[in-house]
Amino acid sequence: MYTGKIRIKETDQSDLPNIMQLWNNGQVMFYSGFPRGLGVTIERLQQWLTGVNQDIFSRHYSIYAENIGYCGETFYDIDRGHDLARLDIKLLPKAQDKGIAAYTFSHVIDQVFSNNLATKAYADPCLDNKKASKLCAKLGFVSKPRPEFLEKGPTYLEVTRDTFKSACSAESA
After folding, report:
1. pTM of this prediction?
2. CATH number at residue 72
């Protein structure tokens, strides 16, 4: 378990070289369907950044840890019409299996629920991504039928404020 300080910050211009490294890493992007990475450029990321963190309904965070440096990203995006938050997290290999994912993903889930942005949230990890599925289960996500309004996908794991709080209570007990 990682015991150093973790910093979660809203992504800004200074984070773009790190995000480029993350998104272009085939090992990180493998389960997203990009085994060679995205091949993204700084210029493309600068364009992407103009639409990021514009309002409270969408937040992208960069994750840093003491003695590790840049670790990865997490974000939420609220579908207000369906009262649903889409969540994701990606970490570089050097930051995996240290408890950083659980800590930072809990943070982003808490942001959604403590700010009353949605009553439920989901993640849709690839079926083969056992680490992501285990993380989601640990945080109170449960498998449910995928809503019709979402793009087709192999999984749909949903968390509510209650299942999240129950999982966090069980974890700290």
Report:
1. 0.92
2. 3.40.630.30
